[in-house]
Amino acid sequence: MSKPKSPIRLPLFVAFCLIAVAFTAARSQQAATIYPTAPPKDLQAAADDNNVFAIDLYGRLASHSGNLLFSPYSISSALAMAYAGAQGQTATQMAQAMHFSLHDEQLHAAIGALSGQLMTEASDGGKTLYQLSVADAVWTQQGLPYNPDFLRVLQKDYASELHQPDFVHSYQQARTDINRWVAQNTADKIPNLLPNGSVDATTRMILVNAIYFKGDWATPFEKERTSDQPFHLDGQNSVSTPLMFENVSCPASESDDLQIVELPYNGDKLSMVILLPRSVDGMGALEKQLTAKNIDQWTSQLADQSVNVHLPKFKMGCSFELADTLKSMGMRDAFNYPAADFTGMTTAERLHISAVVHQALIDVNEEGTEAAAATGIDMVAGAAMRQRLMDFRADHPFIFLIRQQSTGAILFAGRVVNPKAPGA
Q1: Fewer beta carbons within 10 angstroms: which end of the chain, N or C?
Q2: 298 and 320 in one domain?
Q3: Taking Cα atoms as reference points, which of 254, 270, 250 lies closest to residue 262?
Q4: Same domain for 72 and 40
């Protein structure tokens, strides 16, 4: 798995994307945060654009072997904040690489409104269904004149916190403060995003997006049903891993080559979609077919049914330095001095992006801190026209997506190749 190069120097301007997802610890909701509103069609367009970017980025990161995890929503949101200050060819390249289809004013309001909707949906009538927080912040060099329109967009549309450290004379203190903010907004899961030596006196701005999620399954897995079983890495090799089991009524579908289940979290607002190739060696073929259009088509065919779900418990953490990947997606000028045009931020200095760092964590298990139960009884008249019980056995490599059900927006994406791999 690609790791950020160390140390990472951030001369002039850097957009940081980071994300932590965990099912342990807790974080209070940002109840006082005010996000903009946007028409439903703009929200859907922002979600669709995010998903096209998500699968495009997945295809590039998938060339690395092993497990994979990232948050396209976090990366897209952080780069959108940088895009708010881009001009000319730099802005054109960024919009194309990010698949932005909305005009700038609509785009930023839609992204902010989508974040607001995600957090609003986390509660119902004052009852917490799951925990989801999205936080944005920008650290700008004190005394350097920034375009007030740029800062206004960050604060109005992204509810971004504004900090003004003195990178020139106190960059170590600034690094400490940023790491503390990151830890606070990721339930202490990422306590040291910026290692010693990563920030210096030439740093002028750091943008950060953090997203934290904690959700219980709508139908939890009973611990007593979890047992160590083989997870087939390929046609010849396997590892023993805890495999959870539960009979779940959920959206599902299957074909000759692929099985899909959608496991909802408590509240039925977010869900995990699992794409399981029939063949133990089918991951390569599945990834070749993985497009946003195909995912829309596959998930549109899901229908509620009774499914015996076998799913491994897994933990993983991934880190990326995404500059080269984003350049390969067409975002070239943003990283090149003096070609980069971020004069929408400031004209006092010529700024460019030096690094885009992304970190992600996930822990999937049977537990929830609290769960509600509901029972549905489907009574049919006539002879035995019972639906065939689907058996979904994820005991070999699979892809997973955590997404919002109303828009389909993909918050997290990844694959499990080996649930027992180091770091998993």
Answers
A1: N
A2: no
A3: 250
A4: yes
Give the whole-angstrom CA distance, residue 365 versus residue 20.
16
How far are the Cα atoms of 120, 130, 134, 215, 371 from residue 127, in angstroms, in the given order?
11, 9, 19, 13, 12
Q: What is the pLDDT of residues 306-357, one digit of tens each?
A: 999 999 988 888 888 888 999 999 999 998 888 999 999 999 888 888 878 8
Domain tally, the chain: 2
Task: Identify the DSSP state of 329.
Answer: T
Whole-angstrom distance, CA of residue 109 vs CA of residue 337: 30
Q: Give residue-wise pLDDT tens across range 16-65.
A: 333 333 323 233 334 357 889 999 999 999 999 999 999 999 999 998 88
Distance CA 357, CA 347 (A): 25
Residues 181 and 44 in one domain: yes
The pTM assigned to this predicted structure is 0.88
CA distances from 146 to 142, 162, 341, 387 (A): 10, 12, 14, 62
Distance of CA 20 to the CA centre of its chain: 8
